[in-house]
Design goal:
single chain; alpha/beta; ABC transporter transmembrane region fold; Rossmann fold; 3 domains; 16 helices; 12 strands; elongated; binds adenosine-5'-triphosphate; membrane; ATP hydrolysis activity; ABC_transporter-like_ATP-bd; ATPase-coupled lipid transmembrane transporter activity; ATP binding
């Protein structure tokens, strides 16, 4: 029943050792508490002097305080562990997402990933908080109490001992049923978040084609599935709580009957009988506690399993490390020689790419749809490995490497896609997504640079305005500005990769955004893939791609004068504009 994946979390063994010591002390304190309470009751029953009552009551009170202090210490230690471990898992997940890159993220589902990183980690924290402590208590406290009960009265010990496995078997059966239902519920949740995000993203298009009603039905169906699976998990949870309560109450009643009969027959004295009766509910308490919270933690367990599955996906790697690379500056140089890449055996997405760049240059990538622009950007971001890695196609500052899939390179990269992801939260939280420890002042400075403050100043709650799902809607241009602010928050990201960041924007918004972006480009190496060719006037150098090949490269003027494919692309766009 104990989740084995928990054991792989750093620090968990130490936590279990600490909690086991505390649970042992707690068990002894529970025994003392029951004993002194019974002594006080027996003394009262025997009409002894009030002084004979005071001392046992004082000891009982001390035991009571120690017991609840231990409970407090236990939850503090567990809480600290849960916060730390969840923070580490979240960092690992974000690092993994960056290593895997945009291509894998869209395969896994960005909605699913964001839900995991935000809500999933909250659920995991709750899971860590409850399950480890409760499992340790369940494994230790009943055993020690049972030994004490056996020593006091053998028959009571046997009765309680026999009931325990029955409860555990019931818990396992109901737990397995709940787990299967909870896995279905979690899948429903994932489907719902991915569906919701995809529908929201495509809402404009769906409206244009009159398909929004059909998709509304689709969303309704997915949400209904989620509701139904949640209800069936709740049913099992209620059934299991009922079963636990029923069995434990019956067992305590049986023990009480045995003790009563033994008392009448004079086979046991009142003090031991009462001590056992007081101990019996505490004997069952850890297992009831575990059972009560088990269902509440199942979604945390599912989220953890999901995150571990993602963490297990192999990231692209490099054999030769750029250990001396400390960031891109005005003298840095990247040389690419005969770079090849294919997604599958049938076609080559990149073929013999040769290209050099030095310093803070602005490089435009143009080409028809499917020509390989995004693939090339993914390669530069280190999210793909070259097919000919053994030929060391990259040379960074004079060091030849097999691939750019390495942290030393990637931590200097910012990537802005067509649709930056905006999640439900404040504007400030959205900006600080990759830098959760950023101060309000830092966020404000980057928001200013990204041109967000005009919009933010008009909002009553300013940067604390909620956006995304169930918050205020924002425009495509504002979403891009938030993405820009995100990249600016980390000074070390001097390489900007942009994949058609303005593709969805109207011309006016694109123009305004351009005025903000161009100054930001100054101290960066910028690689900008786009179909909007007016950006090329602001680029230092242009790469023209066609069917995976780099067919032309040069300055904008050189390419215009060459009368080649670049000129053809410009003429096509002019023609299209005139015909429109
Ligand atoms: N994940 C993938 N698996 C298989 N083939 C892929 C994958 N992604 C892209 N391709 C193929 O690789 C080629 C280059 O695609 P890429 O997305 O790089 O082009 P692009 O120039 O960015 O296109 P667009 O301008 O439409 O975004 C295309 O033939 C495409 O079908």
């Amino acid at each position: 029943m104990f989740d084995k994946q928990l054991m792989s979390i750093p620090g968990v063994k130490k936590l279990i050792a600490k909690l086991s010591c505390l649970a042992t002390i707690q068990s002894l304190v529970i025994i003392l508490e029951a004993y002194f309470l019974s002594v006080a009751v027996v003394n009262t029953w025997s009409l002894k002097k009030i002084t004979a009552l005071l001392l046992p009551m004082l000891y009982f009170f001390i035991a009571f305080v120690v017991r609840y202090s231990i409970t407090r210490i236990e939850s503090q230690i567990t809480d600290r562990f849960a916060t730390k471990a969840t923070g580490e898992i979240k960092t690992q997940l974000l690092t993994k997402e960056f290593e895997l890159g945009p291509r894998m993220i869209s395969q896994i589902g960005s909605g699913h990933l964001i839900t995991l990183a935000l809500e999933g980690t909250d659920k995991i924290e709750n899971y860590f908080n409850l399950i480890i402590l409760k499992t340790v208590n369940m494994a230790i406290i009943p055993v020690i109490l049972l030994i004490a009960i056996f020593l006091i009265n053998f028959i009571s010990g046997i009765t309680l001992f026999l009931v325990f496995p029955i409860i555990i078997i019931f818990m396992i059966i109901l737990g397995l049923a709940a787990q299967a239902k909870s896995a279905r519920q979690y899948k429903g949740f994932t489907d719902m978040s991915n569906n919701f995000i995809d529908t929201m993203r495509g809402l404009k298009t769906l409206k244009l084609f009159g398909l929004s009603d059909k998709y509304a039905d689709n969303l309704y169906r997915v949400s209904e599935n989620y509701r139904k699976s949640t209800m069936s998990v709740l049913k099992v949870a209620l059934l299991s709580t009922f079963a636990l309560d029923f069995f434990t109450t019956i067992s305590i009643a049986i023990v009480a009957v045995f003790l009563g009969v033994a008392l009448i027959d004079g086979k046991i004295l009142l003090l031991p009988a009462l001590t056992i009766l007081v101990l019996a509910p505490d004997y069952f308490l850890p297992v009831r506690d575990y059972g009560d919270d088990y269902h509440a933690t199942l979604d945390g367990k599912n989220a953890l399993t999901n995150i571990f599955e993602i963490l297990k996906i192999k990231s692209p790697t490099s054999k030769i490390k750029l250990s001396d690379f400390t960031g891109w500056n005005n003298t840095s140089e990247l040389k690419i020689s005969d770079l090849n890449f294919s997604y599958d055996k049938t076609s080559q997405a990149l073929q013999n790419i040769n290209f050099n760049v030095k310093g803070y240059k602005k490089i435009g990538i143009v080409g028809r749809s499917g020509s390989g622009k995004s693939t090339f950007l993914n390669m530069l971001g280190g999210w793909l490995e070259p097919s000919n890695a053994d030929q060391l196609p990259f040379d960074v500052n004079g060091k030849k490497v097999d691939s750019l899939s390495q942290i030393e390179w990637q931590k200097h990269i910012s990537y802005i896609p067509q649709d930056p992801y905006i999640f439900a939260g404040t504007i400030a939280e959205n900006i600080a997504f990759y830098q959760p420890n950023a101060t309000k002042q830092q966020i404000k400075v980057v928001a200013e640079k990204a041109g967000l403050m005009d919009f933010v100043n008009d909002l009553q709650a300013g940067l604390d305005t909620k956006i995304g799902e169930s918050g205020r809607g924002i425009s495509g241009g504002q979403a891009q500005r938030i993405a820009l602010a995100r990249t600016l928050l980390d000074d070390n990201r001097e390489i900007l990769l942009l994949d058609e960041p303005t593709a969805h924007l109207d011309i006016e918004t694109e123009y305004e955004l351009k005025q903000t972006m161009l100054p930001i480009f100054r101290n960066h190496l910028v690689i900008f893939a786009t179909h909007r060719l007016h950006w090329m006037q602001n680029m230092d150098y242009i790469l023209v791609m066609d069917e995976g090949k780099l067919v032309e490269q040069g300055t904008p003027v050189e390419l215009i004068n060459r009368n080649g494919i670049y000129k053809e692309l410009i003429d096509e766009i002019r023609g299209a504009n005139q015909n429109a």
